[in-house]
Amino acid sequence: MLRRDIDEGEIGRAIAELSADEPQTGQIARFAWDSLTAGEGPSAITRARLQRWLWGFVPKRWAGRPDAWSAAATACAALFDALDEPAYAEICRSDTTRAIHRAWRRSNRAGRTAMARAMTSSRTEPPPVDGLQWGTVFGSWEAGARKAVERELESAIDGGRLVPGRRNALDVARSVCADVVDAPHPEAIGQSWRSLIVTERVDAWAGSHHATAAQRRRRVDAAPHLLTPPDPPHGAELAENLEPLRWLAERCRGGVRLTATHRLPPAVAAEAAARFGWGPAGRPPRREDEVGQLGEVRETARRLGICRRTGETLLTTATGRRLLDDPTSHWSRWTATLGGREPAEQGVAEVLALAVLEAGPGEGVDLLEALSRPCDGHGERAIDPVRDRAAIRASVERWRVWRLLDESAPISERGWRVVRPASTLTGVGAAALVSWLHQQATRPPSRH
After folding, report:
1. How many Å separate Cα 168 from the centre of its chain?
2. Which among 113, 313, 408, 421 has most CB atoms closer than 10 A?
């Protein structure tokens, strides 16, 4: 660890000695120290911070000038030598630093890739831990948590507990990270770094400028209920709701030969239609495309890594086999898919989930009405029922696929054929939508 008792006097003397021999080296060393500490003193510097500065900031700051990159690394190494910090000086003059700078010379993409790999292998940056993924942009609490974890990782490396390159290095790093983020915060009574990060993310989600004024009002009302995820359902109810996915995993356990267009064979489509009441009325389906729900099930299984296509065969993976035995363990991964991929789908899903949360346990929710009703007193609507019919139709169908709703019947409105959900969600359906909403509100922030 970098000594915390380094003061400006010591820094000034070290830089003066460097400047006496080579003025430019002294100037670069002063710039490097000020940039690395950002006015916070030596406690701000960690190995991870130095690496990000050398491997990312320097090539961007002096883009197209590899000579300046080498000069910055040389000046930093000399400064840390003068401060009697050989571990930091070694990072500056290491083969890794030179290799990353060579990658930046080839292209920005190559430089970013080389830097990311080196940061990962160094084990100096906080790894993801159970229930907490780190963002690419940080609020103040998350930034503070990262610094705390980086210091503990560095201490573990110095003490020999964490040895980068060993097979157990990632497990040890995750253990160190979990110990830090879940320990009581020294200043926030009754809070941990994790709870502070979650609260910060939920607050940012609730007040996001990307949402409409009406969305923000609803999000603010929902925010206190999203600080912790709902418990996953257990027993027969969950098994029944996951039955289509479990059926496909069981059906493909020994492999299913696909058609020339990589579709499930007619026999499998017919089996799904008969088992779940899907497909065209009055006759068995002749191809997978006639059973829209089956396609959704297969796509969800692919996204979850439960089934994969190998050549002309669809096979159940080891993950899929575990799902057959323990569906509860896949709850969060499954509910993460409920909002779809497209922004329009996710917007619809949010409206539905907020309506479920607003209604409360056991209350009926007419989802079609929730999609189109005014959100505020000025007539602003969550979803325009004319412009966004395709998104509504796609999202409502998603809920039907998973039997999250009670049985419902088609209706027709001015030639627009949609599926109108029944007014009451099942317990699994409500918990799934709220789980998805919690994941949305607490997911890592990123640059838009």
Report:
1. 24
2. 421
Measure the CA–CA gap between 448 and 445, rounded to whole angstroms. Answer: 9
Distance of alpha carbon 346 from alpha carbon 208, whole angstroms: 15
Token readout for 253 is 């356990």
* Gap between the Cα atoms of 335 and 35, Å rounded: 43
Token pair, residue 317, equals 């993976």
CA distance 196 to 188: 9
Token pair of 36 as six digits: 């690395």
- Amino acid at site 27: Q
* Geometric angle at alpha carbon 222, from 216 and 224, rounded to 5°: 120
Tens of pLDDT, residue by residue over 38-96, are 888 888 899 999 999 999 999 999 998 999 999 999 999 999 999 999 999 999 999 99
Looking at residue 259, its amino acid is T
Long-range contacts of 107-112 (CB under 8 A, 24+ apart): 111/56, 111/59, 112/56
C-alpha–C-alpha distance, residues 275 and 247, integer Å: 10
Selection from 231, 244, 236 nearest residue 402 by Cα: 244
**DSSP letter assigned to residue 378:** T
What angle is formed at CA 314 by the lines to CA 310 and CA 318, rounded to 5 degrees?
Answer: 85
In this structure, are residues 132 and 200 in contact, taking their beta carbons and an 8 Å threshold? Answer: no
Residue 184 bridge partners (DSSP): 192
Q: Which of 194-203, 318-327, 412-421 has the lowest mean pLDDT?
A: 412-421
What was the pLDDT predicted at 115? 97
